[in-house]
Amino acid sequence: MSRHDFELAKEMLDSLKKSFDLNSFEKIGGETEFGKKVASIYSQYSDNPNAKNLDFQYKKLIQIANDIKHLKLANDATLPDWLEEELEAVFRKTKDLLIILENDL
User: Fold this and answer.
1) What pLDDT sits at residue 23?
2) C-alpha to C-alpha distance for 38 and 40, rounded to whole angstroms
3) 104 Rama sector, left if φ>0, alpha if ψ -120 to 50, beta otherwise
4) Is the predicted pLDDT of residue 42 greater than 90, yes or no?
5) Which run of H or of E encompasses 93?
6) Quick one: CA dihedral 19, 21, 22, 28, positive or negative?
7) Which end of the chain has fewer CB atoms surrounding its CB within 10 Å, N or C?
8) Helices H, strands E: what count in the chain?
């Protein structure tokens, strides 16, 4: 059995996504429980291409969240469709990577 609870990681990702849906971007990056889980997986399996991709997708997620936060701080109530679509795509890729890693490790 893997040392990492990938089911818990998927739940953390879903929780993080729900917080985005509620417009809560205060706690982002390595501060989230999911961010800590990604860092733990990456540090242990940094030679695994899927772990590298998971780390990359999480960093991409952080960047998109920061972009959205800055739009909100600038009182720009419109969120570009492509940014919402990209956020959703990154969440899907991240969840898929967790499933792949769960099966591989």
Assistant:
1) 55
2) 5
3) alpha
4) yes
5) helix 81-104
6) positive
7) N
8) 4, 0
pLDDT of residue 55: 94
Distance of alpha carbon 70 from alpha carbon 64, whole angstroms: 10
38 Rama sector, left if φ>0, alpha if ψ -120 to 50, beta otherwise: alpha
Where does 23-82 show beta strands of DSSP type E?
none
Rama region for 75: left / alpha / beta (φ>0; ψ in -120 to 50; rest): left
CA–CA dist 44, 90 (Å, integer): 22
pLDDT exceeds cutoff 50 at 97: yes
Which among 65, 60, 57, 76 has a CA at the least distance from the CA of 21? Answer: 65
Rg from Cα positions in the chain: 14
Tell me the per-residue pLDDT of 50-84, one tens digit each, with 9 for 90 and over.
999 999 999 998 888 878 777 777 776 676 778 87
Sequence length of the chain is 105
